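Here's what a typical entry looks like (Adenylosuccinate lyase):
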Amino acid sequence: MSRTAPASERQSLAAVTPTIALSPLDGRYRAAVAPLVDHLSEAALNRERVHVEVEWVIHLTGQQVVPGAPTLGDAERRYLRDVVATFDASTVAELAETERITVHDVKAVEYLLKKRLADAPDTLEGTVLPQVTELVHFACTSEDINNLSYALMVKGAVEQVWLPAARALVEDLVAMAREHATVPMMARTHGQPATPTTLGKEIAVLAWRLRRQLDRIARTEYLGKINGATGTYGAHLAAVPDADWVGVSRTFVEHLGLTWNPLTTQIESHDWQAELYADVARFNRVLHNLATDVWTYISLGYFAQVRGQGTVGSSTMPHKVNPIRFENAEANLEISNALLDTLGATLVTSRLQRDLTDSTTQRNIGPAFGHSLLAIDNVRRGLAGLDADPAAMERDLDANWEVLGEAVQSAMRAAGIAGVPGMDEPYERLKELTRGRRITGEDLREFVAGLGLPDDVTARLQAMTPGSYTGAAAELVAFLDG
């Protein structure tokens, strides 16, 4: 009798080499999110820590802050910055080995840089770098290094990876809006046929909303501080009381391309992070709205998924091409927002002058942006596989002549205000004609003919069709250009 092998008899996948990813972002979806590794991975965090420590040494020596510290030459500054430029897999392994001893990640970075300074004479003859060893991490708490590193990481991820991808998506939508600006489409409010619009105008609405959120995100301030264990410059002033440590702190943070935060506890307050993540989450929610709307348009037949015919749409139904890109985008946006909301809620609170809740929390910034970036990729690929079907939209419009009831009763109102007799209760009269039943074009034209409207108004209304009743929709798309 056959039996299923117990789990204890299976090969352990955790022992497989190379290692198997636990997160789908590092496995199945690696290609779509790989650019974020340079910014939001653990290795990227350590590289930025080395970068901050290096720049701190260069800044202190360049400003002659600590009496007796030597001045570094161009070759020595280049040597220090090369430690960052050559940060690679072997550096990652070296740091991991050191951290196994220190059981402290920032201390491991400090020791790595001190070792590079001690080794400098092997490369630079007559160098003074070994003499500045104790300027590494001078007067710093770990959070002086961490907050600046995270600010640089997030800034790089947003400005170099996430924003370009999001802007490319918006430009795809802008192009679609322009292409379909004049294509009439039945609108649906509350899921019911409503005043017609154009496909391009509805896409333009979503492009406008997304672009507005990107403009907010592009204006993000990335804050940083370097002011000691409780934000008082206590160690700084104890060591060198005559230095302008507040000024040194400000110029250093600004040198890194960040905005200086003058008032903090041991940690930089992370408020800017919460603000950014709220904006990114809002972008995600608008994009989620786009995904559900496009999914619905596909189900109505307004879009045909005719490209990429080599793909399998359904495992059993060959006629189907499922809108999986938009469904996957929905799911990834929801996961991203769950993380972004948690980050924003958690990071703004720290007990008294410091607790460690932000440490683990910030290590999930990468997955939060990763799922958003994956969703952006899904939507772009989904949009690229669509062809609009104006004929399907026209059939829908032609089946709903009752939507012109709004136009007729509005014209009656205007005529009544102008003094035309017999225009009483226009809404009620159109409700009686149209509510709960379908009418034809002939029904509507006959009704209009008997209203006693001025001849020009009658002619205009009788010439109107659901497909022509789109107002200024086509012209509104032009607002995307300015």
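The mean pLDDT is 94.

More examples are in the samples folder.
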